[in-house]
Amino acid sequence: MEDNKVVAKIVSDFFLNTCLLRRRLNMDDVAVLMNSSDIVNSGEADVIPLSTGSIAEFYIEPMLSCIGDVDIMIHLSFQLAIPQEHPPPTQLPDEFHGYVHVYEITDSEAPGYVYLVSSYLLTEITDDGKYNVMQCPRQYWAHDFTENQGPAIVRKNPFQNPSFIRGLFYGSGSMLSLDKVLCIHCLSWPLQAADWPTRHRNYGWPDSATVDHVVSNGCDVVEVAHRLCRQDEWLSNHQYRLSFSRAEITLLNSWMKVQQIVYHMLRAFMKTEGLTDIRDTSGSKILSNYNIKTLMLWACEMKGRSWWIDDLNVVGICVKLLHILADWLTDTRCPHYFINNCNLFDSLEKSQLVQNMAYRLQSITEAWLAEWFVNNYIRKCALDHCRDSRVSRLFDDISTHVKLQNAVSALVNSRLDFSVVDDWSLFATAHGIIHFFQRFHHVYPGLQTSLYLKRELSKIDEALSVYFTAVTFLHAAFKTNRNPLPDEMLDILSTLCLQSNNVRRCLNARHSSVLSLVQATKLMKVIANNSHSTVQLIEIELSKAYLYRALRCKDSDRDSIYYLANVYLAVLYYTTGQFQKAIDHCTVVTRLRIHPQCSSHVVQGELLPKIDDDIDSVLGLAVFYQYVRTAAIKSTTTNTICQCL
Question: Is the pTM of this model over 0.90?
Answer without folding.
Answer: no
